[in-house]
Every structure is written in structure tokens, then in C-alpha cells.
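Fold this: NAD(P)H azoreductase
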Amino acid sequence: MEPVLVTGAAGGRQGSTGRHLTAQLLGRGVPVRALIHTDDERAAPLRALGADVRVGDLRDLETVRAALDGIRAAYFTYPVIDGFVDAAGAFAVAARETGVERVVAVSQLAAGPQALTPRMRQHWVVEQILDWAGIGAIHLRAAVFHENLARIADTGDGDLLTLPMGPDTTTLPLVAAADVARVAAGLLADPTTEAEPVILLTGDIQTIGDAARTLGRGYRDIDPDTWHRWALDFYGSPHAAAHLTKLWEIFRLLGEGTGLYQVTPAIQQYGGHPPTTLADYAAHRTRSH
């Protein structure tokens, strides 16, 4: 069986879909070539699972060409830092040259040319790049990861989830990173599976107040500028801080968002698993600790 290339396989600070996907594909008996940026402590578990680990910069064309050699199906993701469009360009060129037939790529729920955050607009540009390459791209437009929300909740005084989202009735669409990976696994384990080029992934819908309580916290609103300053220090990335500050502000403006979001059937359809609710995620997280 030909291996699947998984980029971002070491996992990052947002959701680690590449790490989840590597484990899920290997669990299905599908060989994985795992591309990671840095050969650090996160690489050892990948090798222990049986992944063929390659190290290199996703923005470097020669690195990506070598990683894609002999590959027909691949997963594309990039952390919330600078260099996203550069990486997509290198990946698209190399994938076209090497004859890749299916690429599953992570995008964002509201990606579009007029989207309200720079990262969302970049996601739309990346979608166009991968589509133009003619490499069978499928874009998973994912909601806010449970993991990202929980990570913020774990900071500060431990009793409050502090976000610039207005009142506690503000609505938030959510999804588990593992569910995004399950959908990707279903589409990559059998590349003949038919699918629309854009798939929306929302697994739960919560008000921010309910979400905070589900994570064992209270909720506190904060002004966007103050949160942005905190995020610059917390994430160490102006790109991530700017994107997330604007993202929370969008939800704040949308308010209760009645009817704007819905749990999508694709998680069950392609991932073979009911959506993981935030309560499911929180319960599993508690057991793991």
C-alpha cells in the first residue's frame, strides 16, 4: 500500500490534526510518511507508531518534492504563523509535479475573499492555489477547535475563561481536532471516496458561557486590545494573536448567532464517528489527567 504524506505530523499549539491523523491512518494499517519541521521530542512517538518521519520546511520546494515522491494522497496543514501562502505554493507545485491525485487540506469555517480576519482570507487564497494545481484538493472548513478553547481556559487564574466575546450568550461553533482528522483519514485511506471539494465541519454549538462552564470555568469578557496584548505573549506569534483577536471579535459582533451554525453530517459520514461534543472532550480530558 502506498503511504500517505501527512504534513504537520508533530502537532502544534492549536489542534494537532496532523498528529491525530498520523495515528488514525497507522491504526487503519495505512503507511504514513510524516513531514515535521523540527526533529524534537514530538518525533519519537511518531516513529514508535511506525511512521516514516521526514524533517524539513514546508516552504522549501525541494523538501516538499522529496517528501511527495511516490505519494498519491496527502494532507496539508500549516500552523497559525507567517508563511502559510508560501508553503501552499511550494506544496501545490511539488504535488502537481509528482502526480498527487488527492489532497485533503484544513481550512476555516468562514474562509472567503471578504472574510474578516487575514488568516481566513489566506485560507481562501490557499484553497484557490490547491484547486488550480489540479491535485484533487478537498478543503475541510473547520469550526473553532475544542483544544484551542480549552488551552485558553487553562491559563490565567484557572477559574475563568477570559475572551473578548461580549456577553455569555454569544454563540460559538466548535469541533474536535480528532474529528477533523477522522474525516481526513476517511478521505485519504481510500482516495476513491467521492466528496465535495469543500466540506464544513462543526461538531457542537455552544454559547461562550455554556462552553466555559463545560470546561469547568466561569466566563469573563475583556476588551479586544487587552486580549491581543495577552495573546502576543501567550502565542509568541503576531500572526496568531491578530487572527484570534479578530476571530473572537467577529463572534462578539454576531452575538447569539441564531441559525448561523449547524452541526454538520460530514463527521459521521466520512469519519465514521458521531461528532465529539465539547462535553465529551472535557470528560475525556479530565480522565486523561
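The chain has one domain: 4-206+256-284. The longest strand covers residues 102-108.
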